[in-house]
Specification:
The structure is a homodimer. By secondary structure, the first copy, chain A, is mainly alpha-helical. Chain A folds into two domains: 61 residues, Arc Repressor Mutant, subunit A; 149 residues, Four Helix Bundle (Hemerythrin (Met), subunit A). Chain A has eleven helices and two strands. In chain A, strand 1 and strand 2 form a beta hairpin. The longest helix of chain A has 25 residues. Chains A and B meet through helix 3, helix 4 and helix 7 of A and helix 3, helix 4 and helix 7 of B. The structure holds a DNA duplex.
Chain lengths: 231, 231
DNA sequence: AAACGCGACAGTGCATACACATTGGAATAC
DNA sequence: GTATTCCAATGTGTATGCACTGTCGCGTTT
């Protein structure tokens, strides 16, 4: 399950701009660039060993995805403006709830069993897994639900929103390991019981939704990012 | 001397790639290109009187927005695959309902009054307005609700979804003029009464949601588009 | 006549070059 | 010492050229 959404050949030699897009997305998720930082095209082009032309094509895609912003002259990493982060989390809640509802209607028993097995395995390795690994598992759980909702647009939208709040989720994951796991279990159980209302309620509770909590995560994110950069 | 801030927003002299993006989006919404059609870069670059470099940057943004697709070698207009259109409408329903709910909680009385006035004016000019004009009014109504929901991400997402189903909406608008208007009125009245459940229900009913209806609109769209192209 | 081959063409993907804007700093004036 | 002006350096936005690849037409072969 949770196959990647690339129907193209696996190790096929993709174009430079596609590779650049994928690599930059990865680096942005990993906070290689700081919020608000300006993007130096020649520097990145050099580091990726390509020219500026395909690089700029990738940058333009990232802008359309909200992973970069276009400031008339040059690109930069979006800042962590609280209002925007609030909006992103709120939008995520709405879409996650929609996918949960649809998954309740459409998921097959065997698929839910598979997801249950996945959760069991996740819980086994959870205690001593890295935060990166935990996030990976978390994303996989939510993406699988979106897959079971049978709506590619919602799934894609959700994936994009998650990209844009990756850092904050990363920060907030610390100290919520067991809580996250048990909530996942609860959500899944409600889906398996086809209790749509309960599943939605659990999902709504599961996602960071209190603005104070989000704000705290934002502050922690700043701390994390700057100590890391100065280290 | 301290100069005032630059006109970064309005009709400022935007870059070629930005202009190209705006113009192409417009042309795509107006179905200047047929579903599935391949994009010839030199031809379009010539027609827009720019070179291929900024054009390709615009094309890449449009791909990220789902208004074009990237087929390994070259770009093309997305086809009207029913599954994708179903997904788009379904996603739209979910997000519209989310914005209606939020608008119910957050909109101020004066704002709702303004929207009511807008509807009244729309109804006045409705009987003999062009379909283009009707769509414009329709979009404005829904976008205003999204604005009242106070969530830029949801609003932006909605705008993008609406772009992607613009043709189908255009087709389906014919013969639904009064129905659309009265449903808008109904939705707004529920919002003003802060009756969230009723507002959501009305919105859900308002948006094209039966797959048979959508399929019919798709067929009509093909007819529309091909007769128009051969004319 | 059909199949094959091949050469010219069309069209994309990328690198490079250039024009222009912005910025930082040094030199100079006050 | 501060302010100002000018120039160099930096960096973006766009045009152009080139290489490569897929395609189509036409002639050759059997």
């Amino acid at each position: 399950m949770a196959k990647e959404t690339k129907p193209a050949k696996a190790g096929a030699p993709m174009s430079s701009s596609h590779r650049a897009h994928a690599q930059l997305r990865e680096q942005l998720l990993r906070s290689k660039f700081l919020p608000g930082q300006k993007i130096n095209e020649v520097e990145i082009a050099t580091s990726l060993e390509i020219s500026r032309t395909p690089l700029r094509e990738a940058l333009n895609r990232l802008v359309a995805e909200g992973l970069l912003v276009d400031r008339g002259r040059g690109f930069s990493v979006p800042g962590l403006e609280p209002e925007m982060v609030f909006d992103l989390f709120e939008a995520r809640v709405e879409i996650e709830c929609a996918t949960v509802r649809l998954a309740c209607e459409r998921a097959e028993e065997t698929e839910l069993e598979g997801l249950s097995d996945f959760l069991k395995e996740s819980m086994a390795e959870s205690p001593d897994a890295s935060v990166d690994r935990l996030i990976e598992l978390d994303i996989r759980f939510h993406d699988t639900i979106a897959e079971l909702a049978r709506n590619k647009v919602l799934r894609q939208t959700l994936s994009n929103l998650n990209d844009r709040i990756h850092l904050i989720r990363w920060i907030a994951m610390e100290g919520r390991r067991e809580r996250t796991q048990s909530q996942h279990r609860e959500i899944l159980d409600h889906i398996r019981a086809r209790d749509t209302a309960a599943a939605i309620a659990a999902m709504r509770e599961h996602i960071l939704h209190r603005n104070e909590d989000i704000l705290e995560a934002i502050k922690a994110a700043y701390g994390h990012v700057y100590t890391r950069s100065s280290a």
